[in-house]
Specification:
Elements: H1 3-24, H2 30-34, H3 44-56, H4 58-63, H5 82-102, H6 124-151
Helix pairs in contact: 1-6, 3-5, 3-6
Length: 156
């Protein structure tokens, strides 16, 4: 695999995971967004905020060798409503995308370096995979919680 195809492939995977998440949250209402299925189990609201926070971190650009994060921002607190969460997620994904397109493909196989602390010896590509994995697995949890929310009224 060439470096150019690796960059293209990870951007494609990121976009695919992102579109799948957006498809999974179509039609969500605030009650479902805030629903706590059991004491101590994180809500969909928490999960969506975690996804957005992971995407928006200034660390992403720094660990990927960029001088600055083009569109990084402080994610703040969990959005109060689904509409606010969707806006937050759009902004977070735009931040992540701006980082992905700014990374020279050839640098993906380079180590993160000292800025990554204990992860400094890992490749920059490993950070990209980590971020995309966060989107994928938390989106799957969101989908499961949506299924459980819909099923709660028919359960004995």
């Amino acid at each position: 695999m060439s470096e150019a195809s690796a960059g293209r492939d990870v951007r494609s995977l990121s976009d695919f995971a992102w579109r799948r998440l957006l498809d999974r949250i179509v039609g969500m209402r605030d009650a479902e967004y805030d629903w706590e299925p059991a004491p101590g189990v994180p809500t969909i609201a928490w999960r969506l905020h975690h996804i957005g926070s992971t995407l928006a971190q200034a660390r992403n650009a720094q660990w990927l060798g960029l001088d600055r994060a083009p569109d990084a921002f402080d994610p703040g607190s969990t959005p109060a409503t689904v509409d606010e969460a969707l806006s937050f997620l759009d902004r977070a994904y735009a931040s992540w995308t701006s980082v992905l397109v700014a990374i020279p493909d050839a640098s993906l196989m380079e180590p993160i370096g000292a800025v990554g602390g204990p992860y400094g010896d890992q490749s920059r590509l490993s950070l990209v995979f980590h971020v995309v994995d966060e989107v994928i697995h938390h989106a799957a949890e969101v989908a499961l919680l949506r299924d459980l929310y819909r099923a709660r009224t028919v359960m004995p």
